[in-house]
Amino acid sequence: MNKRHYIRNSSQDLRLFRWFSAKQCALPTPKMTENGLGHREKVLNMNTMNPNVKRVEYAVRGPIVQRAVQIEKELKEGVKKPFSEVIKANIGDAHAMGQKPITFFRQVVALCAYPDLLEDNKFPDDAKNRARRILQSCGGGSLGAYSASTGIEVIRQDVARYIEKRDGGIPSNPDNIYLSTGASDAIVTMLKLLTSGEGKTRSGVMISIPQYPLYSAALAELAAVQISYYLDEDKCWGLDVSELRRAVEAAREHCKPRALCIINPGNPTGQVQSRQCIEDVIRFAAEERLFLMADEVYQDNVYAEGCQFHSFKKVLFEMGPEYSNTVELASFHSTSKCYMGECGFRGGYMEVINMDPQVKLQLTKLVSVRLCPPIPGQVLLDLVVNPPRPDEPSYATFIKERTANLEILAEKAKLTEQIFNTVSGIRCNPVQGAMYTFPRLTLPEKAIAAAKEKGQAPDMFYCMKLLEETGICLVPGSGFGQRDGTHHFRMTILPATEKLKIVLENIRAFHKRFTEEFS
Amino acid sequence: MSFLSVREISPKVRSINPTELEPLVKRAAQIKTELTQGVRKSYKDVIDVCWGDPHRGGVKPLTFVRQVLAACMYPQLIHSDKLPVDVRRRAQRLLDVCDGESVGSYTATAGIPYIRSNLARFISRRDGGVPSSPENIFLSSGSQISLTHVLKLLIHNQASLPIGVLTPMSTYSTFKMAVEGLGGAVIPYYLEEERGWELRVEELRRVLREFKDVCNPVALYVINPGNPTGHVQSRTSIEEVIRFAAEERLFLMADEVYQDSIFGEDTEFVSYKKVLSEMGPPLSHQVELASFHSVSKGFMGECGLRGGYVELVNLDPEVKKYIYNIFLTDSSPAVTGQLALDLMVNPPRPGDPSYPVYAQEIKTIKAMLVHNMSRVLEVLNNIPGISCQPITGGAFILPRLHLPQGAVRKAEELGMQPDLWYCKLLLEEAGVCVGPGCEYGQKEGTYHIRLRVLTPVDTMEEVLRRLKNFHLNFLKEFS
């Protein structure tokens, strides 16, 4: 048997050469006492563990959340606190904050899960028809069968049709659609795909500051280089191409820039990029030969007047063949946000445009390793891209629920901006879209010093204190990235309106107290 | 020229060996379409016994599981008297532990704490009281993901030699792909076919000796019950493997997803954790072990729901702090998969309204496996040129093809592995899709096919009939 047959790597790979000429890596030797037993060092210890794992941080579920969970336990055990509940305004989870699921969607997935319900006359006909159509495309007519690793074909076709409709008729090919376990799965897969090199040849990936920390976490784990570009807080978190240029030019000294990630509408900042800005970004990506990754999971969450969601794909194609034939783009969407908020189903997709066919083969191979995305998530995605039509029985309820969810979010976005801007020391940009506010805090010098003593970022210090005193859990801005010397927090606008009002009031009161305490 | 060309793609990704099944599966789908379009063939349908996907193959989901899931997804059903009381109660209990009482919420990264506790209780029950802590249990969207996460901890590229993972030949391809995709090296060890695909420690020793200078072996991956071999390890064998892992300082990864699929008489599944614990100190405190389970196999067969977990035993406390980091980028595991795990470890009990139906469904599946196993052996061992080891567990059988020289030569002329070529012909001429042995790994010069035994009885019968006819004609043509 040929050893080389199994220890295989790509033919150009230097490592193959090194394997046969290098010395064996020394393993830590076990500590032995005289009789041969005694304390042994673990096989998997801090020296042998993949060091990239240590670099992974994800503030949205980080230490402050762990403390919040602890406090919840304490409350349950009867420990007295100045508040009766922990309000988790740290994570973009609408259902957790009381938003109700879309009735039609849940009816169809329930029918798919237990097809005997197709005989139940309590379910509307259009829901039943959808369920039947979906079950026909599942192996053995069951949600429990694996699908192709890129997703159920019929659903990919429906996604393509949705994209075409959304983008005014610009064609979408189902072969370019990859269903995924939430958008995160597809984003991480793309990053995995384009990460290579060592030292100065390491792949560099551009991401905004502030950013959704999935990107920084994934890049840390992959040992790729994060190329940060700053959004302009004074211009409502707008993006200037000159900043992109600055960032990429500086980065070329120590890495190979490969991709540009942009989140639109933005997380945590909520800005909805103008069409002009999107064109500028596309032109920049073309000039610098960067693969564009457009995270558009909040595409239905647009509230501010004068703001509109423009998909990167649509703008790209409207810029004409010079760009639409060359710029390489991956657009991401999911079932977790917008008006449906179905995070737990882990439904999502990416559409790849102008991807090199050889690269696409590698991508298809890579996704097959994780087998397939959860079928219930694929089903839910199908309903999102294929909701009840105006002539269908479930339409009236559907459109009422959808509209209500989005309207309430818009109201809360406005309310949040208004109230925060009445607090001296808090400055809040309009929440144009998405689900968050990212206000800027003015913190007294003494507070910053106190934070330093504790070894905490000042906004972490602030948020921890807020949590302990009010039970409100936010995520400090340092978890998302921000300009040096500035402090922020990210709060979701998801709690029910009455509760949100109380939260905003409590934060206002806290901020006043905090400022006084540290003046 | 592309911005992103293959040259720029991660070499680890490029190094992943693709599956051999892809073209076979594509062709099977094409033939299905041709049949619906009226193209004439000597068979009326394509029977797929290639995948480890019971539902696709016609096995029905468990009623209780699907009723509870439906009620969780559409809670109005909890107030409907169309569903049994215990279903409704369970659905309510599960919704109580979901944020906002919705299965659409994120959960804790490691999984819903209530379900982790129930899994710990299940494991302890299964293992005759050996303690299990929820803190050591991490849920994921399918066991492939938790397997990959554990590999991520173990595999790095800091040393000059790749990290090696001892992997059984035969095994399913996505594990090998996961190791390669992380930049690790698969160190293949062979199972002893003539002894029912037994795992022999001498073989592990041999393989370590041989590969020690080209890679840094760090982990030993075992599948028990075996996939695709169907071998169920004896307690003695497990003890030997544990001792070997301890001596050679290997991290043990025990894939036990088929633990409920035991059908051999006098065959018992005993978990690696239980054996390890019963071996006593120092081994019971030293050997690092990750055990994997999922809802995809066993009686549930819920592959599409993506529910799995890993239990970590004896991990370095410093390392444990970082396990969480690896799971973070998934956000949280699919809720439907988590719920299915709970239903798997807490099925209806005698006295529950759903118990009679549940018990009958389990009985039917068990009977299917027992029947198919003996039928398959009986038929295949009586076909000249096919020999088959007895199986006592799992979902597959891996019969050996003793191909005539003429056939091997023909395959080589076509530039194909002989068993892959055999499978292609079997698909074209008989409408049966099975997996080729080269996909899973086998001793050089041997050829096998893999068939799923977890298949309705009449489908299995039809598969055997078509396979027998095909094989006899094949022998005629190539002898």
TrEMBL record, chain A:
<dbReference type="InterPro" id="IPR015422">
    <property type="entry name" value="PyrdxlP-dep_Trfase_small"/>
</dbReference>
<dbReference type="GO" id="GO:0042853">
    <property type="term" value="P:L-alanine catabolic process"/>
</dbReference>
<keyword id="KW-0032">Aminotransferase</keyword>
<dbReference type="InterPro" id="IPR004839">
    <property type="entry name" value="Aminotransferase_I/II_large"/>
</dbReference>
<protein>
    <recommendedName>
        <fullName>alanine transaminase</fullName>
        <ecNumber>2.6.1.2</ecNumber>
    </recommendedName>
</protein>
<comment type="pathway">
    <text>Amino-acid degradation; L-alanine degradation via transaminase pathway; pyruvate from L-alanine: step 1/1.</text>
</comment>
<feature type="domain" description="Aminotransferase class I/classII large">
    <location>
        <begin position="121"/>
        <end position="506"/>
    </location>
</feature>
<keyword id="KW-0808">Transferase</keyword>
<comment type="subunit">
    <text>Homodimer.</text>
</comment>
<dbReference type="InterPro" id="IPR045088">
    <property type="entry name" value="ALAT1/2-like"/>
</dbReference>
<dbReference type="GO" id="GO:0004021">
    <property type="term" value="F:L-alanine:2-oxoglutarate aminotransferase activity"/>
</dbReference>
<comment type="similarity">
    <text>Belongs to the class-I pyridoxal-phosphate-dependent aminotransferase family. Alanine aminotransferase subfamily.</text>
</comment>
<keyword id="KW-0663">Pyridoxal phosphate</keyword>
<dbReference type="Pfam" id="PF00155">
    <property type="entry name" value="Aminotran_1_2"/>
</dbReference>
<dbReference type="InterPro" id="IPR015421">
    <property type="entry name" value="PyrdxlP-dep_Trfase_major"/>
</dbReference>
<dbReference type="InterPro" id="IPR015424">
    <property type="entry name" value="PyrdxlP-dep_Trfase"/>
</dbReference>
<dbReference type="GO" id="GO:0030170">
    <property type="term" value="F:pyridoxal phosphate binding"/>
</dbReference>
Automatic annotation (TrEMBL), chain B:
<dbReference type="InterPro" id="IPR015424">
    <property type="entry name" value="PyrdxlP-dep_Trfase"/>
</dbReference>
<comment type="similarity">
    <text>Belongs to the class-I pyridoxal-phosphate-dependent aminotransferase family. Alanine aminotransferase subfamily.</text>
</comment>
<keyword id="KW-0808">Transferase</keyword>
<dbReference type="InterPro" id="IPR015421">
    <property type="entry name" value="PyrdxlP-dep_Trfase_major"/>
</dbReference>
<keyword id="KW-0663">Pyridoxal phosphate</keyword>
<dbReference type="InterPro" id="IPR004839">
    <property type="entry name" value="Aminotransferase_I/II_large"/>
</dbReference>
<dbReference type="GO" id="GO:0030170">
    <property type="term" value="F:pyridoxal phosphate binding"/>
</dbReference>
<dbReference type="GO" id="GO:0042853">
    <property type="term" value="P:L-alanine catabolic process"/>
</dbReference>
<feature type="domain" description="Aminotransferase class I/classII large">
    <location>
        <begin position="83"/>
        <end position="467"/>
    </location>
</feature>
<protein>
    <recommendedName>
        <fullName>alanine transaminase</fullName>
        <ecNumber>2.6.1.2</ecNumber>
    </recommendedName>
</protein>
<dbReference type="InterPro" id="IPR015422">
    <property type="entry name" value="PyrdxlP-dep_Trfase_small"/>
</dbReference>
<dbReference type="InterPro" id="IPR045088">
    <property type="entry name" value="ALAT1/2-like"/>
</dbReference>
<keyword id="KW-0032">Aminotransferase</keyword>
<dbReference type="GO" id="GO:0004021">
    <property type="term" value="F:L-alanine:2-oxoglutarate aminotransferase activity"/>
</dbReference>
<comment type="subunit">
    <text>Homodimer.</text>
</comment>
<dbReference type="Pfam" id="PF00155">
    <property type="entry name" value="Aminotran_1_2"/>
</dbReference>
<comment type="pathway">
    <text>Amino-acid degradation; L-alanine degradation via transaminase pathway; pyruvate from L-alanine: step 1/1.</text>
</comment>
